[in-house]
Amino acid sequence: MKESLKALLDLLDLEQIENDIFRGRSPEDRQQRVFGGQVAGQALVAAGRTVPVNRPVHSLHAYFIRPGDPLVPIVYTVDRVRDGRSFTTRRVLAIQHGKAIFSLSASFQVEEGGVAHHAAMPDAPAPETLPTQRERLLPLFGERFAEEFTSRRPIDVRHATPLTWEAAKDPALTTPESKVWLKVDGELPDDPLLHVCLMTYASDMTLLDTVLLNHGLAWGDKRTMGASLDHAMWFHKPFRVDDWLLYAQDTPFAGGGRGLAHGQVFTREGDLVVSVMQEGLVRVVDA
User: Which of 107, 227, 235, 278 has CA 20 to 30 A from 59's CA?
Assistant: First the structure.
């Protein structure tokens, strides 16, 4: 197991400090704000630990309220909103310096049968045929940056479509769609909540990039700034994040300093297992 994955699993193993109150921390090498996927994943861990294991999460809706401070712990308070016959509802607040930085509502459901259908998986090259993220970054930024960038990441990401930095250099590569294969860099135990929380973490890594990809923008281009505003996920079927998953993303709208992105996560067998929506702040200095 890659060291960065071990570190992420440690971050998701929250400390329980009281009934329905948990404490998490951020990576020691993070200097700016807390990564949104981290706080979302930790909040879902807090909610899930108050719910029976036979009720898996089926949806979450979250708002990023303030930037998180990576230098101090994050306290997660869980409100047990409802425990019904079929559904359980939890609300979580993430607090730093006495103020809420993030809120999450999650719904859990006992497994049931019923009518079933799902969208078809889009075509994409097999992940093994695609270059690694490090190999894609090498010609753009050189070996030192490529190595530092990828060594810190616990998720193996293989892009089947252009990187934002590539499209920023070549306008012909701009597109409103992005396809990314991803999986954690190691084997995981059979804990469904852990796999869901890790997917929550990973879902925030590339989704808002799709908005930039459509306009030839990139983080770090000295004119684009942004942040996640809200995030919603629906978990349709069980899955494993230590197997390859195709994250198909598109952007239906941008305007008013915001961009909307939509994602669908498929297994290699073609099953749709997760749907995602996210709106983010996207401001361009020279716009």
Answer: 227
